[in-house]
Structure formats: structure tokens, C-alpha cells
Predict the 3D structure of the following.
Amino acid sequence: MIPTEYLMLAAGVLLLLSVLASKASTRLGVPALLLFLLIGMLAGSDGPGGIYFDDPYIAQSVGTLALAFILFAGGLDTDWKTIRPILFPGLSLAVVGVLITALCVGVFAAYLLDYSITEGLLLGAIVSSTDAAAVFSVLRSRGVQLRGQLQPLIEFESGSNDPMAVLLTIGLLQVLTEPNVSFLDLVILFLKQMSLGIVFGYGTGRMMAWLLNRIHLEVDGLYPVLMIAMVLLTFAATASLGGSGFLAVYLAGLVLGSQKFVHRTGLLHFHTSLAWLMQIVMFLALGLLVFPHQLLPVAGVGLAVSAFLILIARPISVFIALLPFQFDLPDKALISWVGLRGAVPIILATFPFLAGIPLASPIFNLVFFIVLTSVLVQGTFIPQVARFLKVSE
């Protein structure tokens, strides 16, 4: 049994290195999230840290918890007035865009890797959504300001497209493990996830504002504790009934942020800090979970799938999803480029382990490699691409 003080020492060192890495990321011109992942990998069993961690269930639980608070903070920090004009384009990207991305990557992966079409689509579904943690972090930490409706559209898409990716992943896992599952079952699953997520998200967001303004706590320090409890209850209650907890907490934050409530400035700062802590913990845990020596064998096909995703699948999905809306070519090109993959695909890549899929390990390593290249290439060059396309303010 490892002594408690050693665990605390390791946690303190990793958090300190991550905070310093976030400072260094600005000077190096790379996203901080990439450095968090690398620190986790170096601290793991293949690195000098020598920490052995090989539990997909714990990694999935940590990632889910962290992502709930990251999405809530993202919604809380988003002004509803900026979301309203881009609501329908954002929903189209979150649903149609994710579906098309999954189909394109799935067919390509099945052909390239000699997977069955269902296994290829599973890989496509896992990497189909953009990642809210990565998008929020890169846009705001790199000081990127985009013109017009681009920034709220990109942030809204990244916060609302996770349910579709989760649904596709769960549905395809059911197809692989339960051959008798029908298309109608998948449609019902989708409607249930989305409807409950919307209802619980809107309802709890209104309830949070009402409670904050009327509870009159004697100790101001308890208000953040109250907010943590409400976020946990929102996610857990929605998910336990079969809805999308991710969508619910994002909408709850969006609804709460559009209303007046006591200690607003302090609570906003608290949730911003909490979101950063959750990002660090999540990416460190996911970095610990991977074994770097297992990434080398998938590097070749990983680069091929990643290049296809970035240069072909993502642009196709964006252009088709935005066909009914008025966006010019530079806007669509920028939206295509800011399709960052991050923690969500890695968390979803742990699902095949828990489902007992034979290809679980190769899929996880491939997804991890795709995320690394996406954050490194797309995340690093967002400011330059925005300036080149003349869409930055």
C-alpha cells in the first residue's frame, strides 16, 4: 500500500508541473492540453515517473466527472444573446456534422484497417465530436477573437455535439455485442437522450438561479459548494434516467448564465478555476492510461486517419451541415479547422474495453494518436489560420 503522503506528493508535483506547462504553452505556441497529456504520459509506467495505471473504468469515471464541470463552466461563461442567432447552425453541426464525420471516417477506417464496417463506424463515432475542453481552452488561452458569429458558433457546437457522439458509440457497441438490436431502438435511444438532456438542463438551470437568489446562506464560501452539488445532481439525475448528462449540464450553465444571481462574479471565477483543474486532472489521467510504446505501431495508420479526418471528413461535414445557412467560404474553412479532438474521444475509446470488444486496445491507441495530432496540428495553428483566412478581429 502506497503511503498517503507519497500520493499527495505525486499529485502536488503533477499539478505544479501542469500549471507551469500552461505558462510555457503560450511561449512555445502549443496548446496547454497537449502538454498536460505529455506530462501524464511521462509520469506513467513507460516514462520516468513509473506510475502504473491501467484501469479504463477509473479513467472513464474521472473523465466524465471532469467533463461535466468543464461543460457547465463553458455554458455559464457563454452569453445566450450570442447563441440565439446561431442556434440552428450550431445544432446542425452538432447532429448532422457529427453523423457525417462518423460515416466518412468509419468507411475510410474500415477500408484502411481491414475492419468490418461496424467496427470502422465505431472508430468514426468515437472521434466524431469536437471537444469542448480543447476548444474552450485553446480559443481563450491563445487569445483568439473571431469575427461575427464564428466564436459562439464554434463553442456552442463543441459544447452540444458530445451527446450525438456518445449515442453513436453506445449504439454501435450494442450492434457489435447484441446483434438483435434494431434501428428503431437506436432512434428511441437518441430521442430519449436529447429530450431528457434538454428538459433537465433547462429546468435545473432555472432552479439554480432561483435557489441562489433565495437560499441566503450565512457563509459565502458555501455558494460554490452548492453549485458543485447542483452540477453533480443535474448530470447524475439526467444520466440515470437515460438522458444525456453532458447536454444537461451544458444547458444548465447556459440558462443560469443568462440570468441574474447573487455572487455572480465570484462564482464565475470559481467555475473557471474549477474547469482548469478538471482539465488538468482529466488529461493527466488519460495520459497515464496510455502506454507510449503501444502508439508506435499505429503511428502510420494513425497519421492517415487523422489526416483524413482533418482535411476531408471534417470539411465535408461542416459544408454539408451549413448548406442551409449563410456562411461564406472563409468562415466554413475556419470552422472546419477548429474541429479539435480532445478528451471526449479518449473517454469514449474506453467504452469498448468495458463492453469487451476484441479490438478495444487497438482502437484506444489509434484514438489517442488521432487526438495528439489533432491538438498539436489544429490547436497550434488556429491563430495563424484565422489570420490567413482574415476572420480574426
Summary: DSSP finds 19 helices and no strands in the chain. The chain has one domain: 54-259+298-389.
